[in-house]
Amino acid sequence: MVVTGREAGKVCPFCRFPLKVGEAAESCDGCNSLYHEDCWRDNHGCAILGCTSHRETAIRTAPPPPALGSPPSPTPTSVARRRRKAPWLIALVVLGIAAGAAAAAIILTRRSDHASLASDAQLQTHLITVSADQRTLNTLLQALAPTTPLTPLREAARALGQDTNGALTYAGTLTPAARQDRTTLAALTTALNHEHAYAQALATLPVKFTKPQAETVVDTARKTQTAFTILHTQSATLPQIPISTQLTTNLLNHASNPLPPPPPPPPTTGQNVGVPSTYQGRFTSVDRLERCNATLNYVYCSAGPSGKAVKLTVGEDVTDLGVRGSQDLGGASMPEGTSFTTPNGKITCNSSTRGITCMDTTNGAEFVIGDYQVIVKHPGSPNRSVGTPATYSGYFTAVDRLERCYANDSYVVCTAGPSGKGVRLVAGGSATYEGVTGSTDKGGPSMPEGTSFSTPQGSFTCGSSSRGITCTDNATGNSFTIGDTLVHVTNDNHEVTY
User: Fold this and answer.
1) Which one in 87, 98, 289, 441 has a CA-CA gap of 20 to 30 Å to 53?
2) What pLDDT, on a 0 to 100 scale, did the predictor assign at position 113?
């Protein structure tokens, strides 16, 4: 037989070295142990004491009959003498079989009871290989330019996919006994599945790909990075897999239909504070970190700290332009709480703690740009007002719309945009962490920090704070708090953080 990925890594009982994919091997019919073909031949069969095939092999490989001139065969008397010793020999054989069975049991127990995933040498080897493949891929992504051939990138991605699949296959054979290890193994499997999908997405990119295709790969990278972040919060001792969403965004520069450059800015108009209620031209946020230009037909903004940019075109839509860089070219700064409308009344912009918000009054399209974040509302998107009444049920979000929730008197469910984590609280039951489920803003009002509401029949109370959204079952006291990256679940006064 030939060693496949499933058998690879198993230790040969004769030489104690692991088997490798593609090697010739032999399997024992008695105990199913796998041997290198040469080891099986050199040992004349199974090497495990107590295996039924061990004795049969010894009999099959007994020396041939004596040649001519050899001493005569044993006499009946000597045979009888040996037969009188047979009970002792039988006892020794029985003891040998028992010892072999105990040894086999120990081997099997060690194989199935991985007391610590971090001490599993084969798992470490698989993850180190995946990590090295990812570093190679990162180097190629970092050097990617519009004229760079994609062949080396695809080959590196294929190697990453093969090694990730090997790690997944090996992880599927593990059955750890410790509860923490089982949780870590589940998170590892999730992360490796995302890594494999990421590698496949890169390996199958066409020679000429579009920006939406590149954005799909970037989104896969983001999910993969989130999954590994969750894994390493549970087990910091496993080898790190350096997946990088930022480096993957270099694919956008290689796309065959890149977005046109932003419009040239108008001349600098100084750096005054405050704009009139009717205005067009250059302006900034109060700290001058969000830099914008409003005309009768569009408004364009960029953020200094992140370099992200966004454009709203009147009567059309909002376009997230990604990382374009940012420069303060002048214009008045807008104190928080102030706003203006363009002379034709088609664009309104205001300044707040979130940054700069601009809206197309003709179709409701809107964006919010802060130091590191761009939030886009397309035409016809669900209502996104601010504040909930004291009694409320339905969709709602945190003040920055990054925690997205739904509440009624039967249950409350929330997800977090940055991490994709989800949590649920059932009336009269427990708060349950639901893992990485993904997150979508389905509308509903945002809740300013310090505000709260109760569901119509008083089953739940939900509030907004700097930690995120907290919801409590008023009957049991069980609750959860969900933020950008962490979920805190409290049941019977016992809190667990995910």
Assistant:
1) 87
2) 39
